[in-house]
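Re: the request from the purification team.
They wanted to know what the chain is likely to look like in 3D before they choose a buffer screen. I agreed to run a prediction and write the result into the notebook, where they can find it.
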Amino acid sequence: MEFLKKNSAILILLILFGFSASAQFTPSKLFENSYAKEAAGDYKGAINELVGLNGFDYHKSLRLG
């Protein structure tokens, strides 16, 4: 019975981590959304798309000017 509880807990954790990983955005998608908002005239929205992006400082600075 203890074995089943342990396996059930592991299965639940794997499912939860799978959902959280699929909910993340890729940097290319964030840049795509930013360009789309800029094209629509929503400049503040275009900037806000890139605010939370980490690790792409050069590209983010190049995009924001």
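For the purification team: Helices lie at 2-22, 27-39, 43-51, 57-64.
Please add any questions underneath this entry.
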